[in-house]
Amino acid sequence: MSPRGKMVQPIETPRQAFLAHPLTVILVGIILSLLVRRLLWNLKQRELERLHGCERLHNEGGCLRYDFLGIAKAIKLGFHFRRRTSLPYTNALFKRYGETYASNVLGYRLIFTCSAENIKHLLSTAFADFDSSPLRKPLFQPITPDGIFTLDGPGWKKSRDQLRSRLSNLRKIVDLNQCERHFQAFLQHVPPNGQAFDVQACAFALALDMQTLFSLGESVDALSFCQSREKKQFLEDLLFVKEKIVQDGFRGPLRYLYPKRRFLHCCKRARRYVIAHVSRQLTGCSSMSEKAEGAQPTNAEEEVSLLADQALSILLANDSMSTTLSGLFFCLSQDERVVKKLTASILGTVGLEPPTWGQLGSLHYVRWVLQEAMRLFPAVVFNARVANKNSTLPTGGGTNGNSPVLIRNGEIVVFSTWARHRLGKDFGENPDEFYPERWKHLSGDMIGFIPFNKGPRACPGQHYAMIVLTYIVARIFQTFSTVSNYVTREWTERISMTLENENGVLIGLS
């Protein structure tokens, strides 16, 4: 009691005031936990860098320096993906931070690189240290449970060897008469007198018809004016699945927050379509192979599933041919000099008759323009690997970026084919310009040129694609000599399973 008879309230200590607000306690606890975790991570990082002879990698700076949870970076990546500006955005970052730098995305440390040496190291030299399936399997499993995109290790090797064996005899699998029939179907969509049409849409349909004939034994008739309802539904399902896979890939862990019902339904229906065609192919095959002496009995259902996975893997990646053709005609519509030289080189070598196998190998300028189109418009603009052990990249560390850098077990390395092809000084002067003659002094095997990837995971169908593309381009310029430009808007990225122009590619042929 005070002298005046009033109760004296006890003085609240800072500790008592702090504990009286449980949310504050929890928040402070989380912050301290993150700081301690970050400190321990840095100490371990320095220890491992000393052990492996590595130097510190540049981190993305600016306001993102304090983005410990990587939320702001994820929002920024999503913003540019929706705005169709991911490619110029990432190129600008490479120009600012160098060919290799680190960033934090939703708590994951991602290493971004466009260094030719680092990409070669990922794809070839240290191939065994990095996996693809941890990133790809959640995306591709509903459509290709055991396809080449979802596997690593022995399972992937078996699937790859089977695909390579299937694609090894080019003269057997590339029927030039079939190529000619598909080309004639393509011509039906070219309006007369150089009027405008979307060559990107036609190139996509052409590639899809050729790939489905090869994979399923029957074309999906994308170029036909009387496509069946079943084939049209399969095509719609396939396109939706491709788009959803790419969207979920960019969303990362946030993909689990988005509905999957339509995606899973389309996967199931598309897979059922492919399995039906594969089953018919197997049933109609000659029994000679089944009765071959010493042949081992196989599980028919398992074989059908395996072949369906292979067919769907090919179809999911089929857009590489259409990306190349649409990119090529986007460039040719703005370069009359190359069109004239290309036409003259084809007519001078082949004449007006459809080219033979022997003549296709002599069309050197066609190969140059195709390689230049693949360089400027690679089908797959981003790719990634996950370290399965502590490993390194040969460059990117230190103040000058020439020292090795540490890649810790579980870290993700993203490499940009788009940036490599457009920023790489090894392509000569003005690498962002269309100039086929640069390939007179360059090799398609150079380490910085990766339209089909490199190393053990290189695209097994790359030689098939080059033969078919060479034939189609030769036939187009045996038929037409002028490419009119109807493009009114800038080239705008649309990143699906492969790269497209959001605005299409409007040209005229005459």
TrEMBL record:
Similarity comment: family membership: Belongs to the cytochrome P450 family.
Q: Where does this protein come from, organism-wise?
A: Aspergillus flavus
As one GO molecular function, the record gives:
heme binding
User: PROSITE patterns from the xrefs?
Assistant: CYTOCHROME_P450
**Name of this chain's protein:** Cytochrome P450
Q: Which InterPro entries match?
A: Cyt_P450 (IPR001128), Cyt_P450_CS (IPR017972), Cyt_P450_E_CYP52_fungi (IPR047146), Cyt_P450_sf (IPR036396)
- Mind listing the UniProt keywords for this protein, alphabetically? Heme, Iron, Membrane, Metal-binding, Monooxygenase, Oxidoreductase, Transmembrane, Transmembrane helix
Which residue windows are transmembrane per the record? Answer: 20-40
**Cofactors (names):** heme
Taxonomically, which superkingdom?
Answer: Eukaryota
